[in-house]
Amino acid sequence: MPGIKRLKLVSVAALSFNDARATVLRELGNTMPPPAIESIGFVSSAGRILAEDIFADRDYPPFHRSMRDGFAIRAIDLDLNLRIIGEVRAGQTFNGALQTGETVEIMTGAPMPEGADAVLMVERATRNPDGTVKAIRKNEPNLNVVPRGAEAREGAILLERGTRLDYSAIACLASVGRTSVAVFPQPKVAILATGDEIIEPHETPRPGQIRNSNAWSLAAQVARAGGIPVILPIARDNKDHTRALIEQGLQHDLLLLSGGVSAGRYDIVEPALADLGAEFFFDRVLIQPGQPVVFGRARNRFFFGLPGNPVSTMVTFEVFARAAIQILGGASDTELPLSLARLTVPFRHKPGLTRFLPATLSGGEITPVASKGSGDIAALARANAFLIADPAQAEYAAGDPISVLPK
Amino acid sequence: MPGIKRLKLVSVAALSFNDARATVLRELGNTMPPPAIESIGFVSSAGRILAEDIFADRDYPPFHRSMRDGFAIRAIDLDLNLRIIGEVRAGQTFNGALQTGETVEIMTGAPMPEGADAVLMVERATRNPDGTVKAIRKNEPNLNVVPRGAEAREGAILLERGTRLDYSAIACLASVGRTSVAVFPQPKVAILATGDEIIEPHETPRPGQIRNSNAWSLAAQVARAGGIPVILPIARDNKDHTRALIEQGLQHDLLLLSGGVSAGRYDIVEPALADLGAEFFFDRVLIQPGQPVVFGRARNRFFFGLPGNPVSTMVTFEVFARAAIQILGGASDTELPLSLARLTVPFRHKPGLTRFLPATLSGGEITPVASKGSGDIAALARANAFLIADPAQAEYAAGDPISVLPK
Question: Which one of B56, B162, B163, B339 is most buried, counting C-beta atoms within 10 A?
């Protein structure tokens, strides 16, 4: 067939979804973590990857801390009428030590006075006419004290290198006074859309043309994954032009191509990559959408060839390329945050492929979004999750649990 | 009890978690959506809330589009030997119309030639010695064509006002050429940490003092929810100082207070709010952590009083305040993205409260993170999800499904 060639250059068997993901994690995991680090203020560190371990600078809590408003007492004094000898508020320390029969008024968060080992909650205490206080019931109190060092001992690791800094990690940095922190640089990710039919969003399409949406959705996805997107000009269906842009893309930390990876005569992406000495780890995965997705390495840089239908591009980015960006950025957790939900309707599919379908997740239940296929961007935009149909299970009844990936 | 007063001013019954969330959504939902809109470039619109509907500017696809590389044919010609009369690539249009016995080579994404109504995939065609082509098997082809307008008709709504713009919505904007777009302004959210024991993160704590982490984790949470955080100075345990800062906070779109909402003598936040004429919708919810969470309105602004333990502050923000910011920002979807996961270990809790526990979610399974309670920031930082224990279910076996909220 001289007219139409199958230009797929790799003859590896199609991989299952799990094997393909394992391949990405293995190949990227074998690259060295970036040795460079940079220092930034903790206030603007959300989403960055920690490049150092963070330790407790003192015991946490730094003192025996009252969990309640009430009366600091000796637990063995519970049945006595207790004389109030003072008070201690959060931020203060009580001078002196508690003796038998004595109590100190104490507020939530305040350090326990010396000699006290329990807090009688204010709601469970009563005041006698002579001004002393007493537990309303026997069996009070619970201790209501967090002992010094119970949350962390001085020197303990609180956050590990490779942690993605979210709001809770930022709270952790603030609590130990780490106002500046070492993080890994964000990987620079080149984005190369391909195809003669594509024009830029501000242009008016002629018949047969469509606007470039893939470069812009990929840029948003790269940024969310922690990378810095670098959008290259559109590669036209011409091997020299495509090759030159691929070479430019391979100067960044990762290259994402969209389109040009199916089987036709003018798919010139894989041959252009092959010319550059590319090694292909896979070029077909048993998924839908996105079956012809390509993963490889050239000039010591990894690349993905993402199928050009918009929904295919977005899905294959999420399930393959996102993990690569996380690893290149030094993140230790690259796992897909899969959970489950119960189908609100029966669902069936032809087994053999792992299917990712736009869906709406609500209250532990999931409903597929009506979609016209991998060109139906609006259907994906109406979804807040993907349901993931198992290649080994053809039928699901309403109420059955099914795998869910947040969008 | 003149010495220690219960200063809680509201005598409403404690609300269940679901009732408290419904209260927030109802009260906020009754506010008018912000009438102001602003126009921004679509490239930087990720996370913003759309203030207009977005329509299809033409049919999508704009032409009958080939889904495959192969041969455009008349489906009724399937058993014939077909003469190739030309080719059409993506971005081109074929001049002329197909007659019986003719075919046009066609590439994925290209417009169908006039007269053709199906595509014979290249992998399922064979070429005869005379240069004609023929289907390898009977029962070919599937049509392999997306009809013009199948994904959307010109004028159809693709994205609705109130949509949060994510990567797929950005793809949608690009595809219809909406390079600038109307969005709602981001609500400004004042953050007011309270307490005499609190110092700033760059300061060195004396005995009894701890660093302010809540203002900084809240700022990260507000930004993630689509708001603009405005951190106020720490309010000291002094009614005039606190009142002045609350008044300042109530000049923003929403006020978040942390700390100062428990039952003790020096909790002066609620009295200060009451002085300002506050209306309280709830001041206790049957959850853990975060039971003393307060929600109200003063001077025509909503406020939350979030309990001061760091984990309580973070959790109550996520499950109550986040939805308020979304509504104030014009978002139509405020639902918690709850899903399910199977417990890897048995779990029990004292029923009566809805419990949110730091947990690690992986492959549809969830494991509670060992935690020392609501001061244990590092435990929460190690989690990627909350498991949500039902107030009516005391015991869960390993393998049981349980509710999950992504962190």
Answer: B339
* pLDDT tens digits for range B237-273: 888 999 999 999 999 999 999 987 665 656 789 889 9
Based on the number of CB atoms within 10 Å of its own CB, is B13 exposed (0-12), middle (13-18) or buried (19 or more)? exposed
Q: HSE, CB side, 13 Å, CA atoms: give it for residue A357.
A: 23
User: Is B174 in Cβ contact with A217 (below 8 Å)?
Assistant: yes
Buried b (16+ CB within 10 A) or exposed e, A99-115: eeebbbbbbbbbbbbeb
A125 CA to chain B: closest CA distance, Å? 10
| Tokens linked to A304 | 């993905």
Q: Label residues A319-338 b or e (16+ Cβ within 10 Å = b).
A: bbbbbbbbbbbbbeebebbb
Q: Model confidence over A289-327: pLDDT tens digits?
A: 999 999 999 999 999 999 999 999 999 999 999 999 999
Closest residue in A to B222 (Cα) is A167
Which residues on chain B are in Cβ contact (under 8 Å) with A364? 338-340, 403
Residue B185 CA, chain-centre distance (Å), reads 17
The residues that bridge with A228 in the sheet, in sequence order, are: A188
Q: B108 and A262: CB-CB below 8 Å?
A: yes
What is the distance in angstroms between the Cα of B379 and the nearest Cα belonging to chain A? 8
Rounded CA-CA distance A256/A237 in Å is: 17
Distance of CA B83 to the CA centre of its chain: 54
What residue of B is the nearest CA neighbor of A221? Answer: B167
Task: Tell me how close the Cα of A231 comes to any Cα of chain B, in angstroms.
Answer: 11
Report whether B145 contacts B118 (CB < 8 A): yes
Query: Is A69 in contact with B310 (Cβ distance < 8 A)?
Result: no
pTM here? 0.94
Q: How far is CA A192 from CA A28, A33, A249, in A?
A: 20, 25, 7
- A263 CB neighbours in chain B (<8 A) are 69, 122-123
Nearest to A106 by CA among A96, A119, A117: A119
Contact A59, A147 (CB under 8 A): no
* CA gap B333, B325 in Å, rounded: 11
d(C-alpha B79, C-alpha B98), whole Å: 16
**A to B CB pairs, distance under 8 Å:** 353
How far is residue A94 from each of residues A236, A238, B320, measured CA to CA in Å? 76, 80, 37
**Could you tell me how many residues make up chain B?**
407
What ipTM was assigned to the predicted interfaces of this complex?
0.93
